[in-house]
Design brief:
Blueprint: H1 2-16, H2 34-48, H3 52-65, H4 96-109, H5 116-130, H6 163-171, H7 177-184, E1 191-193, H8 198-201, H9 216-225, E2 236-238, H10 249-255, H11 262-265, H12 271-282, H13 284-298
Antiparallel strand pairs: 1-2
Length: 315
């Protein structure tokens, strides 16, 4: 009986957790130039287009939250199968070409060795570092998955989520409230469409038009960009005024009622997460350290089986 329980536990553990352990020196022998080539491709792309940093970080997050970090987010739809990237919350997922360019460079050096999931994890790290954020060593050895389904993107957290919904979404992936707060700091980079925070600035409740936890002046500025009819399809605002720099401005603004999403604001609704927000708002270093730890944790959720040759299609 005990043996069966132990076996079951092992099975469950290996299916749900890290799979094969990742390591820092995974490609030291098989492709020592890989990281340099990836960083070069990311640098080049960001030099041409500063919005690429945010895009790469978000793609990696979406990858890891659906089927683990297995590059399922990079697969194209085929035939009747609609892939994750064509699913509903794909709004603003872009810059996939950067991963394709990095993969081409790496394939030229060592064909069939470096997974797309590793390339994406490394590119997200590079994006953060190049934007002025912390640098860290990324454990490698992820495998690419063979399945990508648009319907599964429904399991991503929504911007309307409250703190208990966020906690559930993160804990289902083995991530803590600390990870939730630190990783939400990714919203120091990038852009949001009006649709993502519409709920807070028009018809918030039957009695109130605007979310009362939002700073009135901030709400007014958002309303001036985002009409109630969403006339301008691509309208939106940057995440924070320093949206191309990875810093702790997000947390400072959050404390002033100047965050975009209900999910951001809800980090203030539990004492534990609120205390972390205050800590990160007052110390860029504390935020950077926590972000690195949580990124390594998030990006270790694995799930794949193969090393894809083209990141857009299964082998
Ligand atoms: C906590 C749950 C999260 C929710 C509900 C959430 C939601 C969103 C939403 C709605 C957008 C704007 C999409 C648009 O309107 O274009 C966005 C953008 C973004 N998110 Fe999150 N997010 C979460 C966590 C994360 C995490 C963990 C990261 C990375 C560590 C991240 C990084 C980003 C980045 C960088 C952008 C900007 C993308 C761009 O400009 O291309 N988010 N997020
Ligand atoms: C997002 O999904 C829509 C369909 O839901 C699709 O038309 C669009 O091309 C997708 N965007 C990206 C960046 O893949
Ligand atoms: C969060 O939302 C869920 C679903 O609407 C609700 O059941 C729950 O009570 C809410 N939790 C908090 C803390 O507001
Ligand atoms: C807000 O609610 C009112 C009354 O239900 C409705 O007439 C109006 O169109 C709504 N506005 C938006 C932006 O949904």
């Amino acid at each position: 009986m005990a043996a069966i329980v132990a076996l079951l536990c092992t099975l469950i553990f290996s299916v749900y957790s890290l799979g094969d352990a990742l390591s820092l020196n995974y490609y030291d022998k098989s492709c020592p130039q890989a990281e340099v080539a990836i960083t070069k491709a990311v640098k080049k792309a960001i030099a041409n287009d500063k919005t690429v940093s945010a895009a790469l970080l978000r793609i990696h997050f979406h990858d890891c939250f659906v089927r683990g970090c297995d590059a399922s987010v990079l697969l194209n739809s085929v035939g009747k199968n609609t892939a994750e990237k064509d699913g509903p919350p794909n709004i603003s997922l872009h810059a996939f070409y950067v991963i394709d360019n990095a993969k081409k460079a790496v394939e030229a050096l060592c064909p069939g060795v470096v997974s797309c999931a590793d390339i994406l994890a490394l590119a997200a790290r590079d994006a953060v570092t190049i934007a002025g954020g912390p640098n860290w060593e990324v454990p490698k050895g992820r495998k690419d998955g063979r399945v990508s389904k648009a319907t599964e993107t429904r399991s991503l957290p929504a911007p309307t989520f409250n703190i208990s919904q966020l906690q559930q979404s993160f804990s289902q992936r083995g991530l803590s409230m600390n990870d939730l707060v630190a990783l939400s700091g990714g919203h120091t980079l990038g852009f949001s469409h009006c649709s993502s925070f519409q709920n807070r600035i028009h018809n918030f409740s039957t009695k109130l038009d605007v979310d009362p936890t939002m700073s009135p002046s901030f709400a007014a500025s958002l309303k001036s960009v985002c009409s109630s009819h969403n006339k301008v399809r691509n309208a939106g605002v940057t995440m924070d005024p320093s949206s191309r720099t990875f810093d702790n401005t997000y947390f400072k603004l959050l404390l002033q009622g100047k965050s975009l999403f209900s999910s951001d604001q809800s980090l203030l609704s539990a004492p534990k997460t609120k205390a972390l927000v205050s800590k990160f708002a007052s110390s860029q270093e504390a935020f950077g350290d926590a972000f690195v730890k949580s990124m390594i944790k998030m990006s270790s959720l694995n799930g794949g089986q193969e090393v894809r040759l083209d990141c857009k299609v299964v082998n």
